[in-house]
């Protein structure tokens, strides 16, 4: 019964629930070539393979250091528990997305499925996708 109450409370208070589920995490990468074409302020989708577990992360390039290192903030539905270093062939940038598409991914709790990612990328490209009324209204105020 307590679990049902907590789930009902989470459904009525999505902001608090979203804050507890989402975590920022950082990944140390030795090569910058995966970010070719991305600049500070760009939003993008990144695919990681952690020993067979595929994680889709949504990122924002904060800055590029003088040494060429990219400083990136990531958001994901199920981030790793601790910062990790991954192999160069275990990750790739899927594509750059718009700020509105990034906010849509946030509203949809950082989709980790292929269909969810395709919908976000299609929305960013201007293709029509199905949006709920609340998503449409909230996206109107994203600049």
Order of SSEs: HHEEEEEEEHHH
Number of strands: 7
Radius of gyration: 16 Å
Shape: globular
Average predicted confidence as pLDDT: 75
Number of helices: 5
Overall structural class, as computed from helix and strand content, comes to alpha+beta
- Report the helical percentage: 25-40%
- The stretches of 5 or more residues where confidence is low (pLDDT under 50) are 1-33
Read across the widest sheet, the strand sequence of neighbours is: 1-5-4-3-7
The rounded distance between the terminal residues' Cα atoms is 42 Å
Beta content: 25-35%
**Biggest β-sheet strands, sense, barrel:** 5 strands, antiparallel
List keywords for this structure.
globular, alpha+beta, 33% helix, five-stranded antiparallel beta sheet, two-stranded parallel ribbon, 143 residues
